[in-house]
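Researcher: Good morning. I'm working through a list of sequences from a screen, and I'd like to move beyond sequence-only analysis. For each chain I'm collecting a predicted structure so we can compare shapes side by side. This is the next one on the list. No need for commentary yet; just the structure.
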Amino acid sequence: MFQFEKHSGPVSRLPVLLSVLLLAACSPQQDESSEVSAAMQDSADARNMRLVGYHNLQARSAYQPEVHAYGDRRILFVGQHAGESFNPQTGLTEVNGLSILDVTDPSSPTMLKHLPPTGLEASGSQHVQICDGDVLPEGDPDRVYMIRTNGLIAYEMFDVTDPAEPEFMSTIDLTGFSSRPESSRGNRETHKIQWDCETGIGYFNGTPEGWRVTRVLQAYDLRNPAQPRHIRDFGLVGWEPTATGPFPEYNISGLHQTFAYGDRIYVGYGSGNNGTLQILDTDKFLNGSPGADDPFVPTPENLLYPEIARLDMPSYWGVHTAKPILGSEIPDGEGGVEDSMRDFLIVPSEAGGGAMYCAGVHDIVFFIDITQEDRPYPVSTYQVPEQPGDYCSRGGRFGPHSVHDAYHPGFDRTLAVFSYFNAGIRAVDIRNPFQPVEAAHYVPETTENTIELCRNIDGVERCDSAIQTNNVNIDDRGYIYAVDRSNTGLHIVELTGEARDLVGL
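Model: Good morning. Structure tokens for this chain:
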């Protein structure tokens, strides 16, 4: 049986590994691509944020930044979309995989390694998670471990105790093939993953054999990274392999992101449309119903057993992420409620391809009250106004993508940081989730590497080179890391002015 202790609030995990202190003696020369020009600093559209560091990431399409503390060092792992680019460190054109950078000095990010995917079938490595061995229940305390997606076909475990020389450990699992009708993405896919280091449980996003959608929740016991064990596959009723009747609607993208926190799992399905929010009991999810003959067989009864609540969005909005912000103290009587201590979820609906030139529905960020968790309800929204930034004309998508995954004592219940595609990085004051207010923003400039994005608008093809800030994250020092999906690179920014004061930096 798995045992869990509910957190009273967000916690920081900053273990120090004595064994990696020797890495400080092995620092490569600064990349020319990491220099921040005066023009980049001066021309940026910014308020209460400033650019600290930059790296072009070898002109690769980037998906997700994950920063990790190695003693006094900070190492950034950047997952990438499919594609290829030239690597000057090897002199080879390499398929996009994973970039590893030393960001100890955020003004001088240094490329340590580009790690291509494994095998000819794989391209890209969109998502990555890191755990210290001394935090994992059964890990080697002298090691640091990494899980990454290998293209859209598998999950892989690496030893990254030396981040410049990752050592392959194992393929945790290969995805299967869904039974749904063929789509442009095919019937096999991985995506965002979460590895809860304190429990050792991995919550993966993949395609088990025969399920009726791509991307469902796959749970793994990774307490000992050398001995991964599959626990169960999980999704919404009607997605299981034995279901009958019409297939789920074409636009349903399946699972997008799982956020396990304490004794709850917050699940987002349908990133930009046909979205569903689900709240699960962690113990019931991991152990199953004691009354079932086989609690992990995906029957409707077993899929419903851990469910505490479900909220279905309109067809035109999705649930990209559901990040919990628990124990927010709000003004008495705000929103018509009496209890001033309340729990919320931050739920962005991802702006998809239809958001180019604002041709489709405007996606927004929802704040959902889960104080009475079996009855979640939205209480407010946040969106960036189209003007004065003229974002509808800039090209690329305009709208939210994701909220930062990490927790930080100064940011928790205070400031949420969003990636907003061509509107860059947006920081929002969430002290009162009934009334979120933007506190800072930074919109990077395009470079010679930024690709053109095209869309047919009223019978005319339009193409523009546009910033597409894809994901953001923060580290324990308060630096914000943003990566761009249109090949522009990595931007490291810091808060200034009132926003900096707000989080106590």
